Amino acid sequence: MKQIAKGHGVSQGKVCGKVKIIRNMDDHDKFNENDILVTHLTDPTMVIVMNNSAGIICNVGGLTSHPSIVSRELGIPCIVSTKCIETGKPITEILKDGDVIEMCGTTGEVHKIEE
């Protein structure tokens, strides 16, 4: 496992799972239960997807942003303001659908699990 990104952990918990990048409502159909939701920022149209996710990772956000509040209410690990530790690129630019990662909503660390 290699740490690839770091952000602000805003909802505690550690999970492993497959990444699904969700850019808009058209992407909701490709999301499977217990995938890790990776997006720029969640909004109310994503609550159903959020409820079925193992974890949530966003490019932006803070302690009182939408993903932070909803993830704490649902008890789902969440990291916001997540960037690549080497390049500073947003998380949606360094991960792709199907990547297997471990995320920690306490420390804000994202590790890629090598296949």
Short overview:
This protein has 115 residues and is an alpha/beta fold. It has one domain (2-112): Phosphohistidine domain (Glucose Oxidase, domain 1), CATH 3.50.30.10.
Question: Which parts are unreliable, with pLDDT below 50 for 5 consecutive residues or more?
Answer: none
Figure out the total of helices: 3
The CATH class assignment is: Alpha Beta
* Separation of the first and last Cα atoms: 9 Å
**What is the total tally of β strands?**
7
Give the biggest sheet.
Answer: 7 strands, mixed, barrel
- Please report which band the strand proportion falls in: under 5%, 5-15%, 15-25%, 25-35%, 35-45% or over 45%: 35-45%
| Residue share in helix | 10-25%
Q: Order of strands in the sheet with the most strands? A: 1-5-4-3-2-6-7
Shape: globular
Oligomer: single chain
* Number of structurally distinct domains: 1
Mean pLDDT: 96
Counting helices, strands and paired strands, the structural category is: alpha/beta
The string of secondary-structure elements, in order, is: EEEHEHEHEE
Gyration radius, rounded: 12 Å
Annotated CATH architecture = 3-Layer(bba) Sandwich
CATH fold group: Glucose Oxidase, domain 1
